[in-house]
Amino acid sequence: MLGLLALGLWMTGLPLGLAKLQAYNWHKWVGLAVLALAGARILWRRRHPPPALPAAVTGWQAKAAPIVHWTLLALLIALPISGWAMSSAAGISIVWFGILRLPDLVPGDRALFEALKTTHYGLSRLLIGVLILHVAAVLYHDLWRRDGVLRRMWPLGGS
Ligand code: HEM
Asked: Which of 51, 85, 142, 145 makes an SS bond possible with 150, Cβ 3.0 to 4.6 Å?
């Protein structure tokens, strides 16, 4: 996600040319891989519910934590789908990694393309905001409260 954010921010500023086209393709391909992984993650989550919040997380923080987590998960789905639909609305079909032709999500339409571009832009800014919030919260807990929240996020860290 961080790589896609950086690539997205960088590629839009490139002059029209082969490098820009290649960057757009890689952005789309990896973004759609994220969509597939997000689907797998959601299925996995249904069978493996997260551990309860640590006792140190109470009050408004306990209410805010699931909202931030669900927003992150929703963005994992909404960002790639809005990008895919934007590409379809622009009349550009996606051939995933140059191998698999994907169906167009919407018909080619200039106004729809502009709306989806604004949506993709807005969602990417929301992602940046939520990521900053999330990292700040983790650092606050780990460095200030020292309650082991960061350790829980590593693989096998909660057990
Ligand atoms: C999954 C995570 C994704 C993230 C985090 C992401 C992020 C971004 C960002 C930050 C930008 C630059 C926006 C701007 O500042 O103007 C961008 C642009 C773009 N993204 Fe994504 N993106 C994702 C997935 C996708 C997918 C799956 C597609 C298409 C299949 C896609 C298609 C595009 C296109 C075509 C642009 C350029 C729009 C323009 O020309 O202004 N993105 N994306």
From this structure: 142
Examine residue 135 and state whether it is found in any structural domain, yes or no. yes
- For 99-130, write each residue's pLDDT tens digit: 999 999 999 999 999 999 999 999 999 999 99
| Cβ atoms of 10 and 56 closer than 8 Å | no
Has residue 15 been placed in a domain? Answer: yes
At 50, list the tokens: 């997260």
The total of structural domains in the chain comes to 1
* Gap from CA of 84 to ligand 1 centroid (Å): 9
* Residue 158 placed within a domain: no
On whether residue 159 sits in a domain, the answer given is no
Residue from 5, 116, 124 to probe ligand 1 pocket by mutation (most atoms less than 8 Å from CB): 124
pTM: 0.91
SS3 96: strand
Between the CA of 144 and the centroid of ligand 1 the distance, in Å, is: 35
Tell the residue number behind the tokens 């839009």, with chain if given: 12
